[in-house]
Amino acid sequence: MILYNQNIWGNTDQPVGNRHIMIREMIEEICPDVVTMQECNPTRSRVGEYPMQEILQPEYLEVLPEKADANYAPIFYRAETVEFVEGGFCPFSGKNFGTSKSFTWAVFVERATGKRFGVVSMHFWFKAIDETDAEQRRENAREVCGAVNEIKNKYSIPVLAAGDLNSTDATNHTLAGYEEMIYQGMKDVRELAKHSCDTHTIHSYPVHDENGNYISADEPYRTIDYVLVSDENLIDAESFEVSTHQKALLSSDHCPMVIAFYL
């Protein structure tokens, strides 16, 4: 199984340009079974010539498509390889901007084996002014882990939680959100994978030309995106990769994380 995660940089007034096309091309090349995204802004990323929820069709369907007008952290799945069982969309309580900071969860069946697994797409609070912001990220983590535990208790399956935790030791953000996920029992797939890397996930915003197409970008210098799993004994994490080729760098300020695993 393959999971692809990317914050697609949707909370911006800058043009989408060719970014959605590059994201679609990367997904077509990788053929992930599940795609998790953040900043899939309903008023920017889901409108225009290449709305994200349509550009991936027909191969990929969205979990809870009826929530598309509010869901910034969607999950898409490859209907040929996985079957959707149930899911939910949960804006975080506390500090938020509408439904921007939220998580979506889903339970799937791998068609080839009949095995079930859970997935969460999440985006934590982003400001780093004082301790209340760090505490908000901890609370985001606790809400996600509460949902993960409900899925585990109901199905006895592994749950992969992927997304932008806005947590790093390189700035005032601190690792609060990430550390709370670990404290709650989640395991970092980057550390579990047989084949892994230490590549960072975030870089400066790519530069566009006068036509709105993106033409240059810098290398990543910080990590705020993570993939965690509820029970390392229920998956075999084969590889963890952060893509840094040109399409990856130009399509967002966040590089895609690609995880290959067996149930």
* Computed Rg: 17 Å
Most strands sheet? 6 strands, mixed
Structural class by helix and strand composition? alpha+beta
Label the CATH architecture: 4-Layer Sandwich
| Cross-sheet strand order for the largest sheet | 3-4-2-1-14-13
Following the backbone from N to C, one meets helices and strands in this order, namely EHEHEEEEEHEHEHEEEEHE
Give me the number of helical elements.
Answer: 6
Low-confidence stretches: none
CATH superfamily: Endonuclease/exonuclease/phosphatase
Tally the structural domains. Answer: 1
What share of residues are in beta strands? 25-35%
Average of per-residue pLDDT values? 97
Which bin fits the share of residues in helices? Answer: 10-25%
Please name the CATH topology. Deoxyribonuclease I, Chain A
Q: Could you give the count of β-strands?
A: 14
